[in-house]
User: Which sequence fits this backbone?
């Protein structure tokens, strides 16, 4: 029928697999849908059943959230997820998987920046535990991409290329670098390059997938800004290649642990997502009065 010619929208795609002669729907689908049923249905050569299917599919597609940007986030597999991880980032990731194109990574290469030797043997175990927590919390592989960093060799190659254009001074000025050095009881002279170059690998992770947004806590703002600077410098030297990702701050970026300080894995002040009721109660009841007042 002439009404079903000209629009670059395939009937096969809209109807969801029902074969229909002719490659396109109406020149303006809105015009078709605006007609009274007694006008439209008789001229649809495949009859009322097919047209009702078309309406259902169009309604379903209309309800689907618009994919506005690509989101990237990753965690190091260094232990079970705790409430700080959930409220600081994971909760936001779960929400975003229904709004954006999301890629979430297991940053097992990043884990090597703070663990070494025999400790590395537990990375596989921690990876399984962490992804289990993700799935239990609500991440759905049908609605987002979940991958392991070490399995994408291109990330390591891009890290090498980015390290050639990143001044050392940029890396030494990152506030979290100095905090990690102190936390490891080392000095800037004897830490590994992996720890110094952590933001470069982080940048490679994000921009390889051309992500436009990164959900983080405000304490990670310096990392995202450095990521933008590295991408900007690469684009300046070699042409426009990568987008500059934006930080997407979570609503609760800072969660206090059981000792009154920021909740973390290494400080043993967190409450694990998989903790039983008894384990949670024990943690809470052991909070000292001074630390409780901080909380």
Assistant:
């Amino acid at each position: 029928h002439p009404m079903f010619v000209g629009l670059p929208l395939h009937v096969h795609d809209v109807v969801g697999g029902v074969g229909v002669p002719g490659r396109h729907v109406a020149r303006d689908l809105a015009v078709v849908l605006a007609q009274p049923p007694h006008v439209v249905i008789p001229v649809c050569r495949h009859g009322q059943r097919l047209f009702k299917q078309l309406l259902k599919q169009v309604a379903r597609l209309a309800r689907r959230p618009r994919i506005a940007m690509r989101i990237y986030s990753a965690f190091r597999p260094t232990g079970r997820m705790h409430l700080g991880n959930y409220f600081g980032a994971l909760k936001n990731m779960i929400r975003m998987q229904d709004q954006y194109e999301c890629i979430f990574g297991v940053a097992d290469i990043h884990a090597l920046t703070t663990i070494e030797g025999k400790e590395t043997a537990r990375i596989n175990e921690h990876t399984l535990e962490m992804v289990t927590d993700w799935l239990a919390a609500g991440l759905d592989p049908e609605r987002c991409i979940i991958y392991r960093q070490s399995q994408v060799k291109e990330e390591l190659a891009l890290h090498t290329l980015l390290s050639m254009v990143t001044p050392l001074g940029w890396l030494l000025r990152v506030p979290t670098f100095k905090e990690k050095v102190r936390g490891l009881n080392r000095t800037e002279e004897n830490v590994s390059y992996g720890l110094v170059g952590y933001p470069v690998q982080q940048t490679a992770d994000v921009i390889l997938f051309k992500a436009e947004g990164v959900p983080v806590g405000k304490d990670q703002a310096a990392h995202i800004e450095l990521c933008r600077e590295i991408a900007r410098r690469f684009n300046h030297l070699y042409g426009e290649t990568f987008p500059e990702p934006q930080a997407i701050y979570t609503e609760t970026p800072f969660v206090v642990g059981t000792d009154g300080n920021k909740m973390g894995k290494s400080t043993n002040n967190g409450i694990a997502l998989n903790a039983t009721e008894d384990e949670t109660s024990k943690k809470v009841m052991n909070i000292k009065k001074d630390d409780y007042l901080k909380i």
